[in-house]
Design a protein that fits this description.
With 116 residues, the chain is mainly β. It has no helices and eleven strands.
Length: 116
């Protein structure tokens, strides 16, 4: 049974930082592209960042470039999202995603709240 468990969310002031973690089990971690997406109240879920397993390339939404960093620790089956210089508009539930050609798995999400 595949599980993706996110952690690290919380409340932070604007300009602060959070580090999200997503630990995967039940899958061969290095065979999946790992991604973070987020959903704010009343908005659709949107792409934030991804780490491609095949070549290690990373991709970011324009809104987070230069502030967020995605990384992967294969030994720990964990993907991280380091979020710096947080803005009010970054407040959302952040979801971890593992995808391959045939599979697509989601975590339950972790809440990130940014206060002014």
């Amino acid at each position: 049974q595949v599980q993706l468990v996110e952690s690290g969310g919380g409340l932070v002031q604007a300009g602060g930082s959070l580090r999200l973690s997503c630990t995967a089990s039940g899958l061969t971690f290095n065979q999946y592209t790992m991604a973070w997406l987020r959903q704010a109240p009343g908005k659709e879920r949107e792409f934030v960042a991804s780490h491609v397993h095949k070549d290690g390339n990373t991709y970011y939404a324009d809104s987070v470039k230069g502030r967020f960093t995605i990384s992967r620790d294969i030994a720990k089956n964990t993907v991280y999202l380091q979020m710096n210089n947080l803005k009010l508009e970054d407040a959302a539930v952040y979801y971890c995603n593992a995808n391959s050609t045939n599979d697509d798995y989601w975590g339950k999400g972790t809440q990130g709240t940014v206060s002014s």
